[in-house]
Write a structure and sequence with these properties.
Mean pLDDT: 95
Structural class: mainly beta
Shape: globular
Number of helices: 0
Strand order of the largest sheet: 1-4-7-10-13
Largest sheet: 5 strands, parallel
Distance between the termini: 26 Å
């Protein structure tokens, strides 16, 4: 809950796994142009601007944004550059103007429907995200619990 951006990466490679980036006055997570990133099982919520801004990256390092929950950010959810980045198993909902901007590449494992959360951004049994994240996901979720538990992975950072 800081007065500026939550996390800002301007060089190198950002590895972020099983983290909460909450309630910052500006963007929750800002990845600069030319920065490699591997962001998984993370909740980005309640930030004053966009939840996540991903800069353009064409290097040989990772450019993965997978199984994250991006909700309740004031301006928007996930912003991608014109070249786009693929979002896998991402849950984006109830973000200001948009959940995922059109430059991002999404697939059937990404959801922008109401997630139906319990406490601390954990899914409930009736959530449409349960078993909606596809067949392949990280070995554990934001709490370190094994994935998948059902017939497929759950989208977002939490496995019900």
């Amino acid at each position: 809950g800081g007065r500026a951006a939550g996390i800002s990466a301007s060089a190198g490679t950002l590895h972020l796994t099983r983290a909460y980036v909450l309630n910052h006055a500006e963007t929750g997570l800002a990845v600069g142009h030319g920065v490699a990133f591997d962001i998984t099982n993370t909740v980005i919520a309640g930030n004053g601007s966009s939840g996540v801004t991903l800069g353009s990256y064409t290097g040989t390092g990772p450019a993965r944004f997978a199984f994250n929950t991006v909700v309740n950010n004031s301006y928007g959810g996930v912003v991608c550059p014109a070249m786009g980045h693929t979002l896998t198993g991402t849950l984006g909902h109830h973000n200001g103007t948009f959940d995922v901007n059109p430059n991002c590449i999404t697939n059937v494992t990404t959801s922008t429907v109401a997630a139906m959360f319990g406490s601390n951004f954990h899914l409930t049994a009736s959530s449409p995200c349960v078993n909606a994240g596809g067949p392949t996901c990280p070995a554990d979720d934001i709490d370190g619990e094994a994935r998948p538990k059902g017939t497929a992975c759950d989208c977002g950072a939490d496995e019900f």
